[in-house]
Design brief:
- This protein is mainly α and 88 residues long.
- It has one domain.
- It is built from four helices and no strands.
- Helix 1 (11-43) crosses helix 2.
- The protein is elongated.
- Keywords: Membrane, Transmembrane, Transmembrane helix.
- The chain crosses the membrane at residues 20-42.
């Protein structure tokens, strides 16, 4: 039966992408988030008084959200190239 499948033919690549995202989540995402969380908690209230801390606070918040970003892309099986979009 030719053409009986419903997938796009990227099953093994999708599984590989999921594995790569899982490794990024474990070895990078959690570590970056834990580092950024403490600093974000300390700097976030200061942004009310000192406007110059706002870009730093926003960057730290992106770091805190990195595990969510990795887990979302892991479940979607998207390419690892999407990791560059987390830094924008």
């Amino acid at each position: 039966m030719s053409g009986a499948g419903t997938g796009s033919g990227e099953g093994s690549a999708n599984g590989l992408n999921m594995l790569l995202w899982f490794l990024v989540l474990i070895f990078l995402g959690f570590w970056v988030a834990s580092f950024c969380a403490g600093w974000y908690i300390l700097i976030s209230p200061c942004t009310v008084c000192v406007e110059g801390f706002t870009p730093l606070s926003d960057t730290l918040l992106k770091g805190v959200k990195l595990p969510h970003f990795c887990a979302t892309h892991m479940m979607q099986g998207s390419n690892l190239g999407e990791l560059g979009n987390a830094c924008k």
